[in-house]
Amino acid sequence: MSILDNRPALAKQVNDVAEVAGYLWQKGWAERNGGNITVNVTDCVDDAMRALPAITEPIAIGVTLPHLKGCWFYCKGTNRRMRDLARWPMQNGSIIRITDDCAHYEIVADEPVMPTSELPSHLSVHNYLIAKGSPYKASVHTHPIELVAMSHNPEFLKKDVLTNLLWSMIPETKAFCPRGLGIVPYMLPSSVELADATIKAIDDDYDVVMWEKHGVFSVGPDVLEAFDMIDVLTKSAIIYQDAKSMGFTPDGMSAAQMKEISDVFHLPK
Prior knowledge:
Largest sheet: 9 strands, mixed
Distance between the termini: 50 Å
Shape: elongated
Number of domains: 2
CATH class of the largest domain: Alpha Beta
């Protein structure tokens, strides 16, 4: 029996993660066990779930996160593949709850699958989002080929250079990723420094952050929205690179055209 049985709201959250995991694999953004997904599912927790015993001893997060007291998360498992998560989400991920000391977590269901090694980074971001009063519940880290390729060009790593280039490729990019793309210089994966830099970039009002030569980290109200922003940014990167491969640099939309989109759709300036 699964914890998802007779809990349609929780089952939908997990099934949405499985759907996105399938997309990440199909697009080639999730080689081997690459990428991570973490979703705050606290709103789906009922009294019977709260009474469930843990299936592991408390495990140290490595940092104290005071705003996560009483929170529950669905997390991709460490060393698990997105292609397997897409088919068997509760065998390749787990539901955890944060203990009252805000420094440990327990695995509650369905199996003792250890969460991603990047869990401290993901949870630190969620702690920040809750502290800020953000409605965002989902975080997605993946390796979009075209965006990672562009991060190897130092020119694109200057503030908002890549944002404006990608916005200019197709109107939908600014409409559906209106805060653009933040940039974090290369840092060791899973490090505290990378987590802190990501939070700083999100605090600067980005929803999607490029980790130089590594991948992207996206936050959103749900996992599908977090994925969609990465998807539209990558579409723009492909348009740019296709034009370059045909021997010309695309003109892109003008600043006036992009301002018109912002005005019509009431987007952030």
